[in-house]
Amino acid sequence: MTALPSDEALLALPKAELHLHIEGTLEPDLAFELAGRNGVALPYESVEDLAARYEFSDLQSFLDLYYATMAVLRTEDDFAELTRRYLHTAAAQGLRHVELFFDPQAHVSRGVPLEAVVDGISGALQEAERDLGVSGGLILCFLRDQPVESADAVLSAALSRPDRLLGVGLDSAEVGYPPELFAGVFARAKDAGLHAVAHAGEEGPPAYIRQALDLLGVERIDHGIRAAEDPELMSRLAAEGVPLTVCPLSNVRLRTVSDLAEHPLLRLDAAGVRVTINSDDPAYFGGYVGENYLAVRDALGVDAERAERFARTSIEASFASEARKSELQREVDAWRG
């Protein structure tokens, strides 16, 4: 085993982030700033009061706060500022490429035009490529606890500008909403040339991971940690090279694992599953992407060799061009020295 890397080394490690909800980067201070700008009354007394509520008993308790706070996002400038702040924070922690999720149904249902969401996020990504050297793209996620017809409608609207999207995903409350419900929507998206990913095996059972693979045809599984309960499924993921976008701090804060020291990350890695490290909703879960690397070093003893492998896997598993992947791998080579 190689030595445990320093904070400085891990934060400098060039990495891609493949599981990041842009709405989940809404820090309390920005929430209040946007609330004041847009005349939105938040049901919290102060920034400190809101921050104190970032303790969750499960996924649903998080989602309740998540959607309530999201009400402050109204304009293209709001989405641009939200994305811009995430990119600057994560770039300081080694982010070099991001494929970020956004939830259009949560916005259009409030009267926010889809164009404002997409243009705001895309504009900030373009700035980041120019100013920070961070590349990226958008993955439109369907809310699995909303009617399938709603997902169909938002996909139809988004396909008027398919060049703005890398792919589609599936998120929100998992239990009771199996991937099979969305097979038709995913088929439409893939026919349009979009990549496909899906949340599965976070709170839902390993069977949801199989459905996402077999019925949705996904290329990556978001979370997927419950695969560790099923040796046959782990063998399949390893054999087929299906990447998992694991979010360690999220799993602890939402109590899908009791303690980071008990996280199945290393069991999955030892079984040959391709795992990546991501932050999910960092404003709510206590850490951006580099801080998740620090956390698994401290709790699980992830050494420099493993950290490098996770970073290389994040690049390989991305939907970036082959030229961009090669460029990023060379950056990792330089980090290794």
The major pleated sheet works out as:
8 strands, parallel
Helix content: 40-55%
**Beta-strand share of residues:** 5-15%
Total number of helical segments?
A: 17
Could you tell me the number of beta strands? 8
Kindly, what is the distance between the CA atoms of the first and last residues, rounded to a whole number of angstroms? Answer: 18 Å
Widest beta sheet: strand line-up: 1-2-3-4-5-6-7-8
Briefly note the structural class of the backbone: alpha/beta
Oligomer: single chain
* Poorly predicted runs: none
Q: Please tell me how large the radius of gyration is.
A: 19 Å
| Average pLDDT reading | 96
SSE order, as H and E? HEHHHHEHHEHEHEHEHEHHEHHHH
Shape verdict: globular
Describe the overall structure.
This protein is α/β, with parallel strands linked by helices and 337 residues long. Helix content is 50%, strand content 13%. Strand 6 (220-223), helix 11 and strand 7 (243-246) form a beta-alpha-beta unit. Helix 5 packs parallel to helix 7 and helix 16 packs antiparallel against helix 17. The longest helix is centred in the middle third of the chain and has 18 residues, at 114-131. It is globular.
Quick tags:
single chain, 8-stranded parallel β-sheet, 13% strand, 337 residues, 17 helices, alpha/beta, 8 strands
Secondary structure: elements and pairs:
Elements: H1 7-12, E1 15-17, H2 28-38, H3 47-52, H4 59-69, H5 76-91, E2 95-102, H6 104-108, H7 114-131, E3 135-143, H8 148-158, E4 167-171, H9 183-191, E5 195-200, H10 206-214, E6 220-223, H11 231-240, E7 243-246, H12 248-253, H13 265-270, E8 274-277, H14 282-285, H15 289-300, H16 304-316, H17 322-336
Parallel strand pairs: 1-2, 2-3, 3-4, 4-5, 5-6, 6-7, 7-8
Helix pairs in contact: 5-7, 16-17
